[in-house]
Amino acid sequence: MMPRLGFAFHAFHLGLLRAASLLAPRPERAEWWREWRSELWHVRRQCAPARIVSLQAEREVTAFCLGAFRDALCLRRQAVKREAPAAASPGAPAQCLLWMALLLAASFALSLLIPGVRTAGEASRYQVNPNLILIQHALSDQQSRASVSFAELNKWRLSPQRSFDQFAFYSIVREKIVTEAGDPQWAVAHASTNLFSVLGLPLRLAESSARNDSNLPAAILGCTTFEREFEGNPRIAGTVLRIGRQFARIAGVAPCGAWRLPGKIDAWLLEPDSELAKGAAGYVVGHLTGFGQSEMFGPSVPITAYESSDVPSDLFGIAIESHVRGPMDLYLFALLLAFLCLPAVTSVSMSEYSFNSHKPSWPRRLGRASFLCAKIALLVPIVYYVPLDVAWWRVPPNSFAPQYIQLIASFLICLFGMRWILLDQRQRCPVCLRRVTHPAQVGHASRTFLSWNGTELICMGGHTLLHVPGLPTSWFGTQRWLYLDASWDFLFAGSSVQKAPL
Amino acid sequence: MAREPKPDARSEARLSHTSAMILQAINAGFVYGFSIMEMTGLPSGTVYPAMRRLERDALIRSQWERQSIADAEQRPPRKYYRLTAAGRATLDSSRRRYPLLERLIPSEEAKSV
Asked: Per-residue confidence at B10, pLDDT binned at 50, 70, 90?
């Protein structure tokens, strides 16, 4: 019985030491464990002789073992203090990645807060049907001028058409709206019932409003109006709204940023033709047939309409872009341009030479390549988010300036960011990845072809010396590394940076 | 030949009474952790971390006992500690600061062990 109990206590004490060993830093753990196990053997022999189990003695041994936790923690603190100056020293690889990660996090957080960035992203998600054109009278010199009356459109529709298979119409009127919150004035588009189906835009909340089978005309709310007036409450679908003198049923919400036709509209009132005929002149959207598409040779096309009186009326059609270039398209384009231009601003070659035959080990070379990949991986999203923040910061809606700003900023940040990454990589010690420092000019520029002339930089970890030629020559064209051996150690005796093996 | 690193100038000034006791115990011939605990009466959670700090400051140096000696005595090898030159200098100045240190752990006692 007694030996078994003694064995159990011994196993318990070993377990305590093993648990404490997990707190010791990994490189020193084996030796730490060996020392404490040896000490435990001696403590047990002195305090708890064999064949006798004394609780008092076991308590003393347990107290001894508990001290191991403080010892292991002390070792860990020492290890952390040793490593801290290296990580915090200027030019440490972790510091570089940390700064880049911080910039990325800040730009990402900012992009979430800027409303313009969100709208730009949503607009690019929707595309209108292809082969649509906006038709207006040739006399109207501006795209935003409503010039076609519904009566004219009706005549075209009734006559045989070769170029168009569908027409949609809308005219904008400011109407007083009666809601619970008040009676604001909205820009209401009185539109034909097929407007959204011709455009091919999906409506939000359309399903929930479809259950209401009233005969009232359908009202489609703009995204901004829905958020501003109804706080984005989905329950308003199917409810009745008074627009001007008539009542309408809310039949859906237009997708944010998807409206690309003239006019800033708060709501669309889809009405039958009889009601539209009473209204003012407006805009006509036509869908081209195959024949009509073959007649389009550019973004606009002249159109001649023959009405019943055989008096031709001159019109022109402007193609409606089906897909708006979103931030992602601009970003990818800028990225491609920047990578194409990169060889013009820096050498993209990463080949390096060494004065001696020594080469870093495979893990170190792998670590260096991983560091380069990590920097590029952090730069790529930075190039997306920072220009977005810059472009959409305090910019009015429906402005084209942000797109140009984003394109230029993405291009410049990517180009010069990549240049910095490559230059930085070339000045990283292949052993410890720290930046080489203390540049020293050696030789005279006037004697370039006679003797060595250039800059020498040294790794503060005492691993390498970098020689950069002042002028590339046939015998010394690129930078070279000199791996420092033990004879250089005296220079780094006081350095806080721990020297790692080559 | 390996040179002993210079002691940190601040370590001498900041040496606590506990550390000074441990230095004195090692100097007196108590050269492994458990014997230092027994001699000073300090718990393991104080003695071993203090020895780590003294070793970090190059005041003591550790060395494993040869395996053959431990095998002959049928026990695991022990890790022995000894003072460095810097440690001896620090101990001398600590004795001036703590005059009772030598009375607590006289060097003669070590000879009898």
From this structure: very low
Residue in chain A closest to B52 (alpha carbons) equals: A75
- Residue A431 within a domain: no
CB contact under 8 Å between B48 and A67, yes or no, is: yes
- The tally of domains found in chain B comes to 1
CATH classification at residue B83: 1.10.10.10
**Which residues form the domain of B80?**
9-104
User: Is A189 a member of any domain?
Assistant: yes
Count A/B contacts: CB-CB distance under 8 Å: 58
Q: Scanning every residue of chain A, which has its alpha carbon at the shortest distance from the alpha carbon of B51?
A: A71
Regarding whether A163 and A283 lie in a shared domain, the answer is: yes
CA angle A461, A462, A466 (to 5 degrees): 105
- A154 and A302 assigned to the same domain: yes
pLDDT range class, residue A493, cuts 50, 70, 90: low
Domain co-membership, A220 together with A269: yes
* Whole-number percent of chain A with pLDDT over 90: 20
- Residue contact B76–A69, C-beta within 8 A: no
Tell me if B68 is assigned to some domain: yes
* Secondary structure, 3-state, A111-129: HHHCHHHHHHHHHCCCCCC
Average pLDDT of the segment spanning B60-71: 90
Question: Which of B45, B56, B78 lies nearest to residue A38, judging by beta carbons?
Answer: B78
A45: nearest CA in chain B? B75
Per the model's pLDDT, the better-predicted residue between B15 and A4 turns out to be B15
**Which ipTM did the prediction report?**
0.85
- The C-alpha angle with vertex A57 and arms to A53 and A60, in degrees rounded to 5, equals 145
CB within 8 Å: B48 and A41: no
Same domain, residue pair A98 and A242:
no
How many residues make up chain B in this entry?
113
Q: Phi/psi at B53 (nearest 5 deg)?
A: -70, -40
Distance CA A120, CA A125 (A): 9
A162 and A310 assigned to the same domain: yes
Q: How far is the alpha carbon of A489 from chain B, nearest alpha carbon, in Å?
A: 12
CB atoms within 10 A of CB B58: 18
For residues A144-153, give the mean pLDDT.
79
Token output for A153 = 């459109």
Is residue A247 situated within a structural domain? yes
Amino acid at A151: A
| A chain contacts of residue B76, beta-carbon cutoff 8 Å | 37-38, 41
pLDDT of B1 above 60: no
Distance from CA of A68 to the nearest CA of B (A): 6
- Tell whether B41 is within 8 A of chain A (Cβ): no
| In-domain check, residue B89 | yes
Q: Is residue A501 part of a domain?
A: no
Instruction: Decide the pairing of beta strands A454-458 and A437-442.
Output: antiparallel
Tell whether B4 is covered by a domain: no
Domain limits for position A313: 132-319
Give me the mean pLDDT over the A457-483 stretch: 82
Cβ A67–B45 below 8 Å, yes or no? yes
Q: Cβ–Cβ of B44/A71 closer than 8 Å? A: yes
What pTM value is reported for the model?
0.52
For residue A286, count CB atoms less than 10 angstroms from its CB and return exposed for 0-12, middle for 13-18, buried for 19 or more. buried
B44 contacts A64? CB cut-off 8 A: yes
The count of structural domains within chain A is 4
With respect to residue B94, please indicate whether it lies within any of the assigned structural domains.
Answer: yes
